[in-house]
Amino acid sequence: MNEEPEGPEMLELAIRLARAAGEIQRDRYETELTIHTKSAPIDLVTEVDRACEALIVEEIQALRPDDAILAEEGGGQDRPDAEWRWIIDPLDGTVNYAHGFPRFCVSIGVERHGERELGVVYDPLLDELFHARRGGGAFLGERQLQVSQRDKLEQALIATGFAYDVHRSREDNLAHFGRLLKAARGLRRDGSAALDLCYVAAGRLDAYWELKLHPWDVAAGLLIVEEAGGRCSDLQGGPAPPSGAEVAASNGLVHDAFLAQLQG
Questions:
Q1: Where exactly does CATH 3.40.190.80 map onto the chain?
Q2: Which segment of 3-7, 51-55, 81-85, 192-196 scores lowest on mean pLDDT?
Q3: Domain 3-144: which topology?
Q4: pLDDT, tens digit, 9 for 90 and up, residues 231-253
Q5: What pTM value is reported for the model?
Q6: What share of the chain is helix, strand, coil (3-state, %, to 5)?
Q7: CA–CA gap between residue 249 and residue 50 (Å, rounded)
Q8: Which residues, other chains included, contact 85 with Cβ-Cβ below 8 Å and sequence gap of 6+?
Q9: In the chain, which residues fall in CATH 3.30.540.10?
Q10: Domain 153-263 is found in CATH 3.40.50.10190
Q11: 3-state DSSP call for residue 20?
């Protein structure tokens, strides 16, 4: 295969699949759902999650059978020796979706030899499609994205989230939340990590952090932030782990002050 056009072709495929999954989500939004729990009573999965994942995975397997797939609900096959790896959250924000709260999306990230290469995040209700290629910039539709230029933490709008084990774990993010609540202009918790990262890229948020995420939560969003000129790290300022265990993303200008508050 000619290496040069493969990235654009894969981005086109990822966009098409994200839109198709988003159409399923729109069609089933605020309808009766069958809801199951996974790791905790607040960790939900619905038939919509599974239908979206099946659509995406089956198409990738048909068109690109040599690619590895890591998907939240367990579809596909993750192989460490594959050149290309798709990392899929078919419905990021399932709790929101199950309650009819309009804050959810499809997230598709692609790695090549372990390096983030493509990212697509689609909000089906607003019909907003965020996408990026490594070295090619980040976009919302046709508009190129640029992070905000606020350089004072006290003027920043920041978002976070809480892990599914918040009811039973002492590592619950509440101390971080309290410190940032006092230090920033505003603090939000909306329930979709992928969209929060895209909002940092779009300048709607100035920073975002969260603990105990998973690769499918961040694979697309981290690349979109970086390609929009932002900075991503762990809470100590090191590289943001692809596992999602610790994520801090910002416009870069407030990053050091942001991390200082998180570190206490």
A1: 153-263
A2: 3-7
A3: Fructose-1,6-Bisphosphatase; Chain A, domain 1 (3.30.540)
A4: 999 999 999 999 999 999 999 99
A5: 0.96
A6: 35, 25, 40
A7: 29
A8: 67, 68, 69, 70, 78, 110, 111, 112, 114
A9: 3-144
A10: no
A11: helix
